Amino acid sequence: MKLKEILAVQKNEGEMSEQDKKFFKSLNKKVVAAMVIAAILLTTIIGATVIKNVKAGNTELPEILTVQAAKQDIQKTISATGTIISSEESSENASITGSYPVAEVYVKVGDVVKKGDPLYKLDMKSMREQLSYQQQALSIQNQLNDIAKQNADRGMQNTKDSGAIAVIDADRDIVKKQQAVVEAERNVRKAKEAIDRAYDSIRHAEGGSEEEKRSAHAERIEAENSLQPAKEALEEAKKELEIETIKSEKAKKDANDAIVDKYMASKVDELNAKQSSLSAKQEMSKAREELSKEIVYASQDGTVTNVNIKADQPFSGGDAVVIDNVTNLKATADIDEAQIPNVKEGQKVQIKTDATGDEILNGTVVFVSPTATKNSNKNTDNQSSTASVSKTRATYRVDVDIEGSNEALRLGMTAKMTFIIADKQNALAVPSADIQTDADGSKYVVVQQADGTTTNVKVETGISDEFYTEITGGQLKEGQEIVEASMDGGADAVLDAMGADGGIYDE
User: Quick one: pLDDT at residue 375?
Assistant: First the structure.
């Protein structure tokens, strides 16, 4: 029986053991090629024996080996080795701005915690002292601000009073000058009246003595002489009144300007005081916020898996306490660059671990990294007589949610993962090794007729697993007998079905 028939029969009957599967998967092309050569030699020997028997008169020919086209379930898969990880992990670090020693650590590795449980405490004595100093400084600053405001208010009142006094003095001077103008106007009026009286006296003295006439004219001359000084005194009084009026307006303006300047200065001082108080309050707020981080609490339910701090040692700030959800687990693997295009979110995955034995854990792909996570040194050797070229291949992280829970699973365990890329139920299938390719590129299988003759039947293929290929079109019917391909063609078909690296992508 040929190698491909052994594989086909064992898969059909479900009798292949895990050890057999591991054996066949571990075969690379060189080993398979060696087995193929051995099979060809064996076939040649058998053929020679048959010819010898025929020549000897024994006409019995060897039986043609066939396999039926049958319906079965086919899964196209990718295998990878990964690791069990937590579905939810948090690193509980204090988001502080200063540097403080650790005062107390409340948890240890293995402790189960709830969200909000205290994990560790920092020694913030220095920050408490700083806050106390800031509070005292703010209190003193507020007192100084009150005193400054009182002084400013007092200064403002003094400025108003001084301005009012200056205005009053100016107004008093105006009144005096106004009185002087009134007096000067009265003197001018009196001088004019004296002149009028002098002319009246002259008219009355026309019929009188010469003495009366001389007296009347002397009175006129005296009256006229007093008018001009009175007018000049009036003009001078008016000028002085105008000057005092200007001085009064200036005094009022100066008083108002002084009040405004004093007000603006007091406002600037008030704003500066408020700014100082605000800055002090902000610093106090920062100090209180820093003190609020004195105790670090768990941000999730889970189990403490790492503690990287100790009491009385400086807080480093990196992964102080790590909490993992060990109930809901995931498996993660790095998939080879050749296979990552086939892996999609939502695909089903079968997972096995040494701890869970033969039990298959079901999972679903929940994350496929868009960028390479690391380079794995999978070597593609092109050997010649002079050199061997090694190519580095990229890998991409894939995370898988594991359905349900299993007490045997632990973080960090090795997971053997089978990604179901495609799945066809009850599909018509034939051994991959028995599908041959015509010169025009079309595919066919050799079918044995009821009368023992054979014919080529065109087929269209779908997905393939390690041994069988789905038939999606053509004239092949279920139950037809397919002649096993010759070993020279069948070996390449088996190897092609297994993939360029033998079908296995180990991490």
Answer: 57
